């Protein structure tokens, strides 16, 4: 059996073990990346293609004559034409739930950094402000305790639930937002009712037409000016211009995001403005612990083994 991993460098930083996965192939090639010009040559005679972000469009699938299985080394499936794959009898499987612990941990890290003014204090010390303090410590920036504060969670799947457990360990009260066009139940609160109550708002819902710009100018007006926003979900759920405005105008106290609408922001981004106060941006790295990335490799192996044994798991088409 022949296989190819088209863009393993998006997953591996020379710290992962691929031996179990390789053992199922007679011929297995790992490419750090694959350009559109290289794609057809690399997939035309293989049985299994693994891709993280390389696009497998209809024309590629049509010309890959031996292809039987596409393994996506991520959860999102937008890089594969699922309809075309199904029409050609090609099974497509993804990976799921591999980054729950890492993203939940990152979410709490961002919350703590905002609550403790961690970035500001680190910068102040390195700039010599502590050296010049008339007292033994430096208390120039606000410090907020999580205990007793209210956390609003938008998206209460596996990730949202993991964040809730961590927040409750810090003594926080957790409120759940009702997503647009979802059936209301007693445990969920309409977003307009939830926003004025929260001290922290964290997002863990998918980006859909219903959630695009879910948090915009109107929503920021409803929030306390002492509240913080954390987005470890997807760029586009928060309107970036509205967030920049809200921070500049002091409508909220601070924000942290691990995602932007265009990644990487090669053409710049409104949130990269140097005059935006109390904004932390991390480079879509919340998911990227070595444990989570090795878990992806394990799930790829599980998916492949299950396919070979005729018991497909994590199939998305």
From TrEMBL:
Cross-referenced Gene3D superfamilies: NAD(P)-binding Rossmann-like Domain
GO molecular function, one term: NAD binding
The D-isomer specific 2-hydroxyacid dehydrogenase catalytic domain, residue ranges: 24-314
Record's keyword annotation contains Oxidoreductase: yes
Pfam families documented for this protein: 2-Hacid_dh, 2-Hacid_dh_C
Domain of life: Bacteria
Residues in D-isomer specific 2-hydroxyacid dehydrogenase NAD-binding domain copies: 108-286
Keywords: NAD, Oxidoreductase
InterPro entries on file: D-iso_2-hydroxyacid_DH_PdxB, D-isomer_2_OHA_DH_cat_dom, D-isomer_DH_CS, D-isomer_DH_NAD-bd, NAD(P)-bd_dom_sf
Family, as annotated: Belongs to the D-isomer specific 2-hydroxyacid dehydrogenase family.
Record's protein name: 2-hydroxyacid dehydrogenase
Naturally occurring in which organism (per UniProt): Acinetobacter piscicola
């Amino acid at each position: 059996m022949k296989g190819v991993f088209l863009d393993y460098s998006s997953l591996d930083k020379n710290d992962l073990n691929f031996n179990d996965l390789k053992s199922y192939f007679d011929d297995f090639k790992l490419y750090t990346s694959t350009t559109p010009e290289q794609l057809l040559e690399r997939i035309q005679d293989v049985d299994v293609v693994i891709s993280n972000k390389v696009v497998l469009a209809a024309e590629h699938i049509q010309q890959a004559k031996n292809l039987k299985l596409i393994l996506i080394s991520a959860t999102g499936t937008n890089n594969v034409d699922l309809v075309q794959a199904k029409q050609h009898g090609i099974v497509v499987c993804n990976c799921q739930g591999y980054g729950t612990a890492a993203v939940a941990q990152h979410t709490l890290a961002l919350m703590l950094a905002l609550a403790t003014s961690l970035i500001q204090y680190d910068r102040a010390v390195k700039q010599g402000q502590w050296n010049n303090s008339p007292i033994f410590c430096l208390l120039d920036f606000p410090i907020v305790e999580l205990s007793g504060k209210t956390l609003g969670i938008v998206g209460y799947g596996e990730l949202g639930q993991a964040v809730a457990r961590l927040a409750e360990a810090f003594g926080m009260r957790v409120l759940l937002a009702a997503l647009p066009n979802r059936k209301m139940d007693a445990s969920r609160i309409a977003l307009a009712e939830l926003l004025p109550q929260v001290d922290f708002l964290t997002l863990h819902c998918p980006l859909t037409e219903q959630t695009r710009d879910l948090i915009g100018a109107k929503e920021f007006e409803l929030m306390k000016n002492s509240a913080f926003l954390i987005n470890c979900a997807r760029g586009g759920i928060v309107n970036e211009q509205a967030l920049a405005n809200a921070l500049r105008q002091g409508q909220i106290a601070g924000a942290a995001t691990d995602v932007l609408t265009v990644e990487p922001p090669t053409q710049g981004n409104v949130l990269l403005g140097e005059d935006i106060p109390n904004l932390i941006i991390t480079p879509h790295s919340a998911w990227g612990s070595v444990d989570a990335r090795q878990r992806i490799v394990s799930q790829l192996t599980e998916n492949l083994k299950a396919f070979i044994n005729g018991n497909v798991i994590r199939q998305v088409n």
